[in-house]
Amino acid sequence: LLHSDNRSPGVDCGEFVRATATQLVLLGSTGSIGKSTLDVVRHFPDQFRVWGLSGHSKIEELLAQVNEFHPRWVVVTDPKSARDLSGQPLPDGTELLRGEEGIIRMVQDPQTQMVLSAIVGAAGLHGTLAALDAGKTVALANKETLVVAGQLVMNRLKQQPGKLLPVDSEHSAIAQALTGHTSDEVERIVLTGSGGPFRGRSRESLQGVTPEQALKHPTWQMGPKITIDSATLMNKSLEIIEAHWLFGLPAEQIELIIHPESMVHSFVEFRDGSVLAQLSPPDMKLPIQYALFEGKRPCGPTRRMNWSELRQLRFESPDRETFEAVDLGYEVIRSQGTTGAILNAANEIAVARFLGGEISFLDISRICRAVLSSHHYLPQPSLEELLAADRWARQEVYRWKSL
Ligand code: NDP
Ligand code: MG
Predict the structure, then answer these.
(1) Which residues pair with 20 in a beta bridge?
(2) What is the distance in A from the centroid of ligand 1 to the CA of 28?
(3) Ligand nearest the Cα atom of residue 219
(4) Using the 8-state DSSP alphabet, how is residue 200 labeled?
């Protein structure tokens, strides 16, 4: 840390300097996490070189990013959108790649140093695995990768020199609180969750809620899929599974607490009775920055805690009868095998069908449970078997009608 400047009023903002810029590939750059990541990069123009970007359908947004950051690679995964972009002029030195092969080529480029994985859903799996296979440092927002294939990811991390850094705010908080400690010192971790837009509501009152109501998250601005996951609390279920793999803890050592203010991003309770937490206003730019700087803490673009306005921090137990998705995460940790792939795929399609007006809000968790109970369980699936389980679950969800 060098001398201070005044980028944030009232904050002594030391200037962090790394000798060379990190060459960063951003998967899912047109999404909510992607755009927040580029905000962080804009704040540190000398510290990162945007080496690659990927988008799926938002071609205008992607083109604007390409014209601003002049990456070596731009990948479009949706074939129609790739055709649309191929007619557009690109800056000198930027090359267009397509589809999953394009993602793999870009992340495995020897000049790529870090990959921020922020594609939504199981579609993010291949890019994340390819980056880990190539020994890259991966900042992981795409929690579905660990839900679908946590065991495979952990095995790969043991075999090559790559690193996995959490971006999800709860897991970033836990990683921060664990710094300097080992897992045998941990009594348990407690994931916080806002409770979403329907916190405190009865099951009966949720029967007729609309996608518009479910998309109004009280504290976080996020893409539509994770916003619905936050309303059903499936997001917490996915995060429990994510925490299990990242921190190597069994179901009994992972708890969940509802915290409507979204200021405390999780707790670690140690064997000696001490509890450490990480606090900050709800803004993904902070955990993104923490991952991009691999644990260093330069002064960034994130809002500060306003201690004079902070009145209370509330905590309450989750209502696991109304929000039955929570139990599914624990079931997946206990059963492992193909269950994570099934739960994730069933949820992705159920959320899409709810957003399309085909099924009700409560149907999402009900259908996920039904598909999970009826699937052909494999205890130690290969990647191909996980992908087959994913495909099966997606089709299965279409067979279910709304109650
Ligand atoms: P968004 O929906 O905002 O963005 C998703 C990104 O993925 C977009 O760039 C989109 O491209 C791209 N994409 C969509 N479908 C495909 C596909 N089939 N193949 C390749 N790319 C695709 O999601 P978020 O940014 O909110 O979330 C991204 C990930 O981060 C998720 O896994 C989520 O769980 C996780 N996360 C998000 C948080 C948040 O605050 N938003 C917090 C913690 C984790 P396009 O837009 O061009 O179609
Ligand atoms: Mg989270």
Answers:
(1) none
(2) 6
(3) 1
(4) T
Distances (CA, A) of 140 to 89, 171, 244, 374, 400: 31, 10, 15, 31, 32
Q: How far is the CA of 276 from the centre of ligand 1 (A)?
A: 30
CB 371 within 8 A of CB 393: yes
Q: What is the pLDDT of residue 1?
A: 28
Token pair 């994931």: residue = 191
Which band of pLDDT confidence, cut at 50, 70 and 90, is reported for residue 8? very low
pTM (global) more than 0.70: yes
Over 355-390, what HEC string results?
Answer: HCCCCCHHHHHHHHHHHHHHCCCCCCCCHHHHHHHH
Identity of residue 140: L
**C-alpha 120 to ligand 1 mean position (Å):** 4
Residue 240 sits at φ, ψ, to 5 deg, of -65, -45
Percent of the chain with pLDDT over 90: 91
Residue 7 has pLDDT above 50, yes or no: no
Question: Pocket residues for ligand 1 (CB within 6 Å)?
Answer: 28-34, 55-58, 77, 118-120, 123, 141-144, 168, 220, 222-223, 225-226, 284
Nearest bound ligand to the CA of residue 63:
1
User: In this predicted structure, what is the pLDDT of residue 87?
Assistant: 87
Of the candidate ranges 15-19, 30-34, 259-263, 347-351, the one whose mean pLDDT is the lowest: 15-19
Q: Whose CA is nearest to atom 26 of ligand 1?
A: 223
